[in-house]
Amino acid sequence: MTLIKSISGIRGTIGGSPGDNLTPIDAVKFAAAYGAWLKNDRNKNVYRVVVGRDARISGAMIQDLVMNTLIGMGIHVIDLGLSTTPTVEIAVPMEHADGGIILTASHNPKQWNALKLLNSKGEFLNGAEGEKILNYAENEDFTFAQVDDLGKITKNDAYIDLHIEEVLALELVNVAAIKAAKFKVVVDGVNSTGGIAIPRLLEELGVEAVKLYCEPNGEFPHNPEPLKEHLGDICKMVVDERADFGVVVDPDVDRLAFIDEKGEMFGEEYTLVACADYVLGEKKGNTVSNLSSSRALRDITRKHSGDYYASAVGEVNVVEKMKEVKAVIGGEGNGGIIYPDSHYGRDSLVGTALFLTHLANLKISVSALKASYPQYFMSKQKIQLTPELDVDVLLEKMANKYSDEDVSTIDGVKVDFEEYWVHLRKSNTEPIIRIYTEASTQNKADSVANDMIATIKEIAGI
Fold first, then answer.
1. Is 113 helix (H, G, I), strand (E, B) or coil?
2. Domains defined along the chain, listed by start
3. Quick one: pLDDT band at residue 387, thresholds 50, 70, 90?
4. Which of 267, 320, 323, 271 lies closest to 300 in space, CA to CA?
5. Of 140, 143, 134, whose CA–CA distance to 9 is shortest?
6. 274 to 295, 312, 329, 406, 421: CA distances (angstroms)
7. Mean pLDDT, all residues of the chain
8. Known catalytic residue at 106
9. Order of all β-strands in the sheet with 421-426
């Protein structure tokens, strides 16, 4: 069991001892720290925070603790109840709120939960803001309101519908074309809030939605991370139902994966590639993904005469880079679509609508769409190091060794070779280096990773 405190929030397993796990005491402490930061940062008389949660078993308990802590600090709360991460993100500016909190541990198993923290734009906090909240929590530097100044909770369960309306109104979402295509789609909502939002969106788009694990009871029927090894049921159901494709989301609906009509994975990396292909065909511009995402996005961007940029890993870093280069679309290779015309956050509803429009316009199958893109394969491995090794020095030596290649050191070390790339990142919690590689075949990606592990061991003397 564990508790992880970071600039992006607090994440941990339910139960156990305070400070070691995500207990009620920890939930209250970090909600209070967020409230203290909000009041010191914005310095006004009335504060409002939007709060929503995924369908985890512990969600209602954690949400009640968080909301009542905020009202104890004199902050008013808009309670969205069962919601999605992108829905809370769009609700914050729509409500003119000062911030937002999402209770979700994203793709982690059911024993986990977390507080994800948003600013007044509905975007994740940056490093400096997160650090302040950690300091408030560490020092218990917060003051609660007097009885006459307590906040109030206002329930609003309309925001998933409002979110869908916002998606349908996007200029590049062609509702008429999607309806005319008469798609049939299987949806795996992993028994969380995607089981509410995605079928409802599809129905509004005239798509026949076949539901699989769409009961939001928090009993995840498989590992909730949308990876191939966890998705046998939907792969089979797409074929059995003769559906056009399948849609899979994680518990808080910010990661999106597709299954083609043959029951094969479209590939999480290619979710962003396909959506970007469509958007760039309609609207010229630049794209951004993180350093560990597929080179295919770069290739597609160049095909459309745009410029591709890479950021450090982490949604807040992708968003910062997107704003800097005025990207028209971006995201992460884990199936996260960030479309600024909607908002600066990963959004599976937006991604689904853009993908449907792309398919409706092209009038081809999902497998044919995948075949039209540059084909790349990834290997993701790690190497355990001895605790006394200085990982930063080791990474610096690796960067120097390949200095004749295209090297980035903004997040670990990424080396772009002509035919493949390698990204080395250290763990923040243990002496581990993660090795990501991508090449034109799986064998090549695996071989490059193994060669890189051997080189690291040689330089480290292990």
1. strand
2. 3-157 (3.40.120.10), 173-371 (3.40.120.10), 377-460 (3.30.310.50)
3. confident
4. 271
5. 134
6. 13, 22, 11, 26, 21
7. 95
8. yes
9. 377-384, 432-439, 421-426, 413-416, 406-408
Q: Are strands 184-188 and 208-212 parallel, antiparallel or unpaired?
A: parallel
Report residue 274 as tokens.
């396909």
And the tokens for 339?
Answer: 């479309």
Secondary-structure percent of the chain, ordered helix, strand, coil, rounded to 5: 40, 25, 35
Task: Give residue for tokens 């599809």.
Answer: 202
Q: How does 413-423 read in b/e, with b if 16+ C-beta sit within 10 Å?
A: bbbbeeebbbb
Cα 338 to Cα 221: distance, rounded to the nearest angstrom:
28
Quote the CA–CA distance of 240 and 361 in Å, as a whole number. Answer: 26
CA pair distance 458, 449, nearest whole angstrom: 14
Closest to 258 (Cα-Cα) out of 279, 242, 275: 275
Q: Is pLDDT at 430 greater than 80 in this prediction?
A: no
pTM value? Answer: 0.94
Of 106, 289, 294, 342, the active-site residue reads 106
Rounded-to-integer distance, Cα 87 and Cα 84, Å: 5
- Per the listing, tokens 């600039």 go with 7
